[in-house]
Amino acid sequence: MPRAEIELLAPARDADIGIEAIHHGADAVYIGGPSFGAREKAGNSVADIARLVKHAHRYHAHVFVTHNTILRDDELEDARRLAWHLYDAGVDALIVQDMGLLELDLPPIQLHASTQTDIRTPAKARFLQDVGFSQMVLARELTLQQIRAIADQVQHATLEFFIHGALCVAYSGNCHISHAHTGRSANRGSCSQECRLPYTVEDAQGRIVAHDKHVLSLKDNDQSANLAALVDAGIRSFKIEGRYKDMATVKNVTAHYRQLFDALLEGRPGLKPSSSGRTRHFFVPDPEQGFNRGGTDYFVNGRRDDIGAFDTPKHAGLPVGHVTRVGADHFDIQCDAADTVMHNGDAVTWWDRQGELQGVPINVAQPLGGAGWRLHPNAPILDLKDLRRDAGISRNRDRGWERALEKKSAERLIGVAVRFEQTPDGFALTLTDADGHVGRAAIRHAHEPAQIAARAEAALRDGVARLGGTLFEARAVEIATRQPWFLPASVLNGLRRDAVAALEAARERAFERLPRHAPVAPPVPYPEDTLSYLANVYNRKAADFYARHGVKVIAAAYESHEELGEVSLMITRHCVRYSLSLCPKQAKGVIGVQGTVRAEPLTLVNGHERLTLRFDCKPCEMHVVGKIRKGVLKQAAAVPMAFYRTRPTARA
């Protein structure tokens, strides 16, 4: 029985980061193309993506391109052409949100369902499999039990799950606050992150429940402890978030999960990585060193009460010590650990008396002896709010760590068995890699007996195994000759180079593009016959797709500006009432409290903006309710656009 493949899927802001992600252990990389990706500031040229593809395929790793914004009618042809350009560049799959693309003449490239398709149910997942998606990323909000239920219904598509990085508070694809407030649509790659703002929370009587807290801001996803359970539940592709992340962060987090998966697979003979090679890291990975808001495993093991990053959406860093003295142009700190080293270019943080995070970069760090350091900030001391004696100091940028990761920090090599043998008219060298591919080279050369047999054999063994500068490393060496022969180093080097080239060529010939799954015929019905604006139908082709699959009523996407009144701008499993200990379910069994706490609406206030929180307790969901700003409508009216609007008959 073939072993199941496990894929570690890493993000890449650009091709160079993608190449390093491969070196640090990624089995696949996802990256944005020149347009139509859901991170508009992380685009890349087709030529750069082709460079990444060429490198990844040497390890039989894959490259997926995000093609996952919703599209206007006048963008469909450009999106179709780009899909063909990416296919011609060797890209292995497109990550898609807009179903209108499935109505176009796409290349035979594998399609993956984006997180924006909001896959929470077995019926939705099964439908996407049956219409031709080969891989789909499930909603981050799912529990292990819910994942298992989906896996039971999806046998022909790979299930993917986010295991690390920033968490969107809304169900992906179901957040319209950014568009309503700024005109920047998250579904079109331009989220303004209204969820990271501070809000005052008022109850139904207007009383303040929380003041200036980031109540919609979540901690970062960290499934490090749940990988085995996720494998058992049916996940096969494990995705790291972060197409805006820098090189050091991608190296660090990819290495962290590569090591965890290597340890897991070591004890699971029925599983294997989906790409070739073994990675060695020249540093100890530590995800806490990079930008993070604290970790949570979210809902994988059920609802938790500590998923929020309510005090700040910023990176507070790791505690290093406390302030001992504040001078005119510097401040001194005592580190908690005697071996802590501060660096020029570090950045430090502290909490002011109002509970807000403050911070400053450090120009110069001077040792004072022992665990003491004098820090010269790049801002006047008087401007550093509440920097005071005994204030706790954390470091949220460690230049020493960054410099270490600027160097070569990993290598990835494919193991080979080496066989050197004698032929009737010379010698041959055969390299067989761990995947079973073979590269062979032969040379005509006289059989000249070695003067010192033991030394000649040792030199020969060392020479054929010397694979530095290639993708390969010798795991076993066999010298199959009748006796030790003398072979000049130049001849042996040429033989080895030819064998390596032959093996690389064999691997390239053996590489197969991922197959495109054919949709089930006749068209399978969509699980619902009515679609609201939450389905993000923004072009006529997407409407045709859903109509072909039996949907009777198809509303236009929120970006079409047909929903002008108050609607759910966000739907989320995060519950502010629960996080503030105001949930009726929390009050059950508490004497004197049970029955007195009700899920009445709350109000979020930020400046002049007011949003209503409504609570649907049966599915345990929260709706953030508001309406589109007039300024956004005026701005949109000034720019003629071609997008789908609801057919008059669909409203009947």
CATH superfamily of the largest domain: Aldolase class I
- What's the mean pLDDT score? 94
Number of DSSP strand runs: 32
CATH architecture of the largest domain: Alpha-Beta Barrel
Please identify the top-level CATH class of the largest domain.
Answer: Alpha Beta
Helix coverage percent of residues?
10-25%
Strand order of the largest sheet: 1-2-3-4-5-6-7-11
Q: pLDDT under 50 segments (min length 5)? A: none
State the helix count: 15
User: Whole-Å distance between the termini?
Assistant: 55 Å
Indicate the overall shape. globular
Give the biggest beta sheet: 8 strands, parallel, barrel
Radius of gyration: 29 Å
Computed structural class: alpha/beta
Overall domain count: 4
CATH topology value of the largest domain: TIM Barrel
Structure description:
- The chain has 652 residues and is α/β, with parallel strands linked by helices.
- The protein has four domains: 4-167 and 220-281 and 283-289, Aldolase class I (TIM Barrel), CATH 3.20.20.70; 173-218 and 525-652, no CATH class; 314-406, Thrombin, subunit H (Beta Barrel); 413-510, Nucleotidyltransferase, domain 5.
- The protein is 24% helix and 28% strand.
- It contains 15 helices and 32 strands.
- The chain has an eight-stranded parallel barrel, surrounded by five helices.
- Helix 1 packs parallel to helix 2, helix 1 packs parallel to helix 8 and helix 4 runs parallel beside helix 5 (144-153).
- The two termini are 55 Å apart.
- The mean pLDDT is 94.
